[in-house]
Amino acid sequence: MPRLVMKFGGTSVADLERIRNAATRVRREVENGYEVCVVVSAMSGKTNELVGWVRDTSVLYDAREYDAVVASGENVTAGLMALTLQEMGVPARSWQGWQVPLRTNSMHGGARIESIDTTMLDQKFSEGLHAVVAGFQGISPEGRIATLGRGGSDTSAVAFAAALGADRCDIYTDVDGVYTTDPRITKKARRLDKISYEEMLELASLGAKVLQTRSVELAMRYKVRLRVLSSFSDGPGTLVCDEEEILESRVVSGIAHSRDEAKLTLISVADRPGIAAAIFGPLAEAGVNVDMIVQNIGADARTDITFSCPVDEVPRARRALEEAVAEGQIDYRGLDVDEEVAKVSIVGIGMRSHAGVAHKMFAALASESVNIKVITTSEIKVSVLVDRKYLELAVQALHDAFELEKIS
Ligand code: ADP
Ligand code: ASP
Ligand code: MG
């Protein structure tokens, strides 16, 4: 029998009525002849609440206990989904990550999936049972519960689709597909029928939280057909697929944003071979996720170096830099920290063959008097840092400039 993975996000399982609504969709696919593996998130808001409880209990919390607490949200919805399906006459059983087992590495709080043993699930399918699996979690080599990072149920779902050889992985959420930009920022955002894995990967990693970045990586690697669709309305959603399957050519397919960024500038750094390594080594060791990096042209053997990172990592970055100074590894005359910036990015595979895309982006921002603080580019994206207060304006201006409301 063909198999299907159906993943329901937090808003889709927010209460018992919504779980019933989601279960109705599962039953429909069962009636269509699929063996279904349902992957569920925690009820919306639950994971935030659990994370809050952990932080209020312990500032420098033990990540293994964080995982023990936050994985529990998905356990509740998995059991409730299995019960709801049973009530509807669909034979179903729930499993937590460790019971499958879905094995991870030991990076608690942001673990990576190492393998999924499907022997037990294969057996259960052959007995006529449909599976409900708690998303976001697995078991570490030490035998402890490990979670996959925020939004990780998407990654669980794609991993199960790959391991089970499913025809498709359907991600049910509160929007009816992937849009040209976050529909919460502009009403002009349009749903895309299809988007390439490469573009989706960029959009996700640049802040479009509709899919967790790693889920797109996995889908691309294992060629999982991934669909994003609404659990509240019927519609085709968006198919994430190979670029060869997309007929229309678009220069820019989407705009992503990441709101809570910070920009740090080391002023007048003593410039010498190895200085970048001396700065970014300690930052990496401190767990700071450095994103953009710019080094200015120096003079008198001194230069300025600017980088960006998530705003909540600024204290860690400061500490790492101060320690590196104290240990004599680096020497600079000042540290300028701007905690009020956001990143806006345009993404499109058409950029590979079109000149002038970056210029058009800069001109659109200039016409709204939005100042650009840092720029980075890659083959299919251009990102800029702007003042956070201009984030919405910047996204809207770019959406207009690239005429994304005309995309269908
Ligand atoms: P779930 O709880 O179902 O996993 P998420 O909140 O993680 O849902 O992701 C869905 C949200 O992603 C949407 O409500 C939307 O605001 C946001 N989003 C950001 N960028 C996009 C985009 N380009 N297309 C669609 N949704 C987007
Ligand atoms: N419940 C987890 C979170 O909120 C995982 C998920 O929903 O994907 O991050
Ligand atoms: Mg999500």
Explain what you see.
This protein is of the alpha/beta class and 408 residues long. The protein is built from 12 helices and 18 strands. Strands 3-6-2-1-9-11-12-10 form an 8-stranded mixed beta sheet, sandwiched between helices. Helix 2 (46-57) runs antiparallel to helix 3. It is globular. It starts with a strand and ends in a 7-residue tail after the last helix. The mean pLDDT is 96. Aspartic acid binds at residues 9-10, 41-42, 47, 73, 135-136, 150-154. Aspartic acid (ASP) binds at residues 9-10, 41-42, 47, 73, 135-136, 150-154.
Give the secondary structure arrangement, pairings included:
Layout: E1 3-8, H1 16-31, E2 35-40, H2 46-57, H3 63-70, H4 72-87, E3 92-95, E4 102-104, E5 113-116, H5 119-126, E6 130-134, E7 137-139, E8 145-147, H6 153-164, E9 168-173, E10 194-196, H7 197-205, H8 213-222, E11 226-230, E12 238-241, E13 254-270, H9 275-285, E14 293-295, E15 302-310, H10 314-326, E16 334-347, H11 357-367, E17 374-378, E18 381-387, H12 391-401
Parallel strand pairs: 1-2, 1-9, 2-6, 3-6, 9-11, 10-12
Antiparallel strand pairs: 4-5, 7-8, 11-12, 13-15, 13-16, 14-15, 16-18, 17-18
Helix pairs in contact: 1-4, 2-3, 6-8, 7-8, 9-10, 11-12
The structure holds adenosine-5'-diphosphate, aspartic acid (ASP) and magnesium ion.
The site of aspartic acid has 13 residues, from helix 6.
